[in-house]
Amino acid sequence: MRTFPRIASAIAACTATASLLAFAPAANADEGIVTSIKSFPTSSQTRENLTAESTATEVEGDSSWGGIETLNVPQTASQAEKDAAAAEAAKKVQDEAEAAQVQSQMESASRGQARSTLSYTETDGSVSAGAAASIDRAYSLIGQSMDCTALVSYALAARGINFHGWPEEYANVPGGQIVTDGSLQPGDILIYANTGGWNGGAHYDHVALYVGNGQAVHGGWNGYTVALADAMLNQVTIVVRIP
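The structure corresponding to this sequence follows.
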């Protein structure tokens, strides 16, 4: 039997039939649509400058991205800058202190030139040295700009008493005594409860230093200056005397 040629013929017939089926249309019995199946070769296309857009740095000239002046970036000073600023601040404080010292010396010289030649230790032996020193200092401040409490405090400092407060608080001056017999002596402190002031009654209105002959040295008088004027004895509320 010659079997091999028949087998070869059958294989060839099957191969031919498969080739026809690969390209034959397939009918869809349900929808009546004819489709074909075909394999296409795979292809790829290389795009040039693929990253050109993401790395582009060119910007149109009229583009507005906000100016750097609109940025609020906190600035941190270097140590050298901090040291320079501290040195400048220290120098400013020193300059101000020196200027204040010069001003004080000028004011002292001015007060010395304006100082009255009146000395109570020479003209009236009944006045204590401390009272005379207070009156002498008060006279030296005439024309200076200060309020009534500052004037009396300066007068007290001339006799070694460091005190400052509201007008009524001068009734408690260290070493002071409230006079109740109606007598007056140069160097007494006069306290006024109501002289028509504008403090609304929260404190007594005024304090002054009595210098005799119905007169007193007042601070804050006639334009906030120190002046020698009537003592207004009919308005005095408290008299304080320091022996």
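The longest strand covers residues 206-212.
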